[in-house]
Amino acid sequence: MLSQPQAADLAAQLVEAATRARASAADAMIGISRSSGISVRLGIVEDIDHSESFEVGLRLFDGQRSATVSSASLDPAGFAELAERAYAMARQAPEDPFTGLADPALLGRNEAPDLDLFDPHVPALTMLESRARTAEEAARAVEGVTNTNGASAGFGSSVVALATSTGFAHATSGTHHSLSASVVAGSAGALQRDYASHSTRYFEDLDAPEAIGRLAGERAVARLNPGRIESGTYPIFFDPRVATSLLGHFVAAVTGGAIARKTSFLLDALGQQVFGPGITLRDEPLRKRGLRSRSFDSEGLPCRPLDLVADGVLTTWLASSTDARQLGIQPTGHASRSVGGSPGAGPSNLMLLPGSHSREELLASVPKAILVTELIGQGVNPVTGDYSRGAAGFLVENGKIGEAVAEITIASNLKDMFRTLIPASDLELRRGIDSPTVLIPAMTVASA
């Protein structure tokens, strides 16, 4: 695999080829990744996978026209042809008054902080197999587990480089380790399934396979024999596993593209109270070993911690340079893109900061509620905020988690949900988007 300096130099060579092809401006990305994984089911190896991918992406401008092309070859001998093809495409594209590279004055120039994203430890395939086997065995040992969908362990590494014709050139390296298990509990006609998983940058931070397997088994068994509840209005708790989806809907509503297209239910909410007082949503791009940590965004702008919501007030949109020009604001350092694509906008490590009450205290704060642990379907209207999704989880009475419930639909509007949302204090930083348990005091519940 190329080193970071080699990858950055290769991206710069592609930009030079674009300049020679008469481009008025250009940027290039290089992406290289390797991964290995193994899956077992019922103690038998089902799949062994090893992959390597190489991708080169060039975004070329001819004035206010642009085109993006990609290739799977890292050979500089082909860069001239790739650049000529991109230039020919750009000449045929319509003009866009908002397109272009980031303002050179805003580009990151200083030495990037060390975010500790690369683990030198490369697990052997035999180790991955052993961990997958151990996780599955721990899951099958839970009383009530009757079958398994298998367990998987994996490792990967990557190098991504960005160079621009305005003088930016930088590359980053990262690794990821993962482990998961999925099992089935119950007998024919009354089966339930669930899973547990964990992903980290460093092997030493990964949960033990015994813990992952046991959790998967316990989750599946807990869902057996779901009861029926009456339709009506209930307080709804979102377990951290599914509470993150609410933050995903929020992110989609505050991206510059959605605002520019006027397709967001938060279109006129900037500077307004969107969540309750005391609520903070923070983006932490510089977190060490974070799954989405980065020093620079995909346009070369430096990343910095930012509270998207402070004391319940929406403080900013997430804007790439194109979004920012359309909206008449400054880009926010949240440009995000694939190697062969154009920049959009999105967060890095986003988290809803914890509240002052423990999960147990929050569960006990209402006499009867539903704890949702699984969401089904995509019934969310991004323009109006109307929310309706299938769900499963558990009945909560007087703070005690009771019988499982399934085949219900929960409905409300995201504006109302955000405004009344109450977070617990059980935040754990395990994903790219993290949330504690949250309570929505009133939602409509329909039982099948």
TrEMBL record:
Pfam families: PmbA_TldD_1st, PmbA_TldD_2nd, PmbA_TldD_3rd. Signal peptide: none annotated. Residues 231-446 form the Metalloprotease TldD/E C-terminal domain. It comes from the Bacteria. Transmembrane segments: none annotated. This is TldD/PmbA family protein. Residues 27-90 form the Metalloprotease TldD/E N-terminal domain. InterPro entries: Metalloprtase-TldD/E_C, Metalloprtase-TldD/E_cen_dom, Metalloprtase-TldD/E_N, PmbA, TldD/PmbA_N, TldD/PmbA_sf. It comes from Sphingomonas rosea. Gene3D superfamilies: PmbA/TldD superfamily. Belongs to the peptidase U62 family. Residues 131-224 form the Metalloprotease TldD/E central domain.
